[in-house]
Amino acid sequence: MIQAERYHPPRRATGKTEREIRYYITSLRPDAERLNASIRQHWGIENKLHWVLDVGFREDLDRKRAGHAAQNFSVLNRIALNPLKQDKTSKRGVHGKRLKAGWDNDYLLPLLRN
To answer: pTM of whole model > 0.90?
Structure first.
């Protein structure tokens, strides 16, 4: 069990806090500090990935509703994200690198080979 407390920007001004108890199942030893660090690390990675996919791939604007289209395209976006993040030849962000890859085959082909 982890008791979480968080402030949302509008509530910070009023001093109101949101409290929540979350339950987790794990085979790790019951060390609250270690478990809390692991949970925060997981959500930090998840939130960072979501932000990149939203900004770089505009996932939140997608309107794919039929069948498994949304999940399938999300998997493809995550696959496409890896070579873009590993590319050091361009100082652009993920969105800019996607545009550049669409316009410039000389940039795109080395990305696909890696």
So the answer is: no
Residue 20 tokens, joined: 């929540």
Residue carrying structure tokens 């498994």: 68
HSE at residue 6, side-chain half, CA atoms within 13 A, is: 8
Which is it for the CA torsion 74, 75, 76, 80, positive or negative?
Answer: positive
* Residue at token pair 């979350």: 22
pLDDT in tens, 15-59: 677 888 888 888 888 888 888 888 888 777 777 788 888 888 887
13 by DSSP, 3-state: which?
A: helix
The 3-class secondary structure across 42-58, one letter per residue, is HHHHHHHHHHHHHHHHC
SS3 category, 18: strand
Which residue carries 């794919």 as its tokens?
64
Q: Which two tokens stand for residue 21?
A: 């108890």
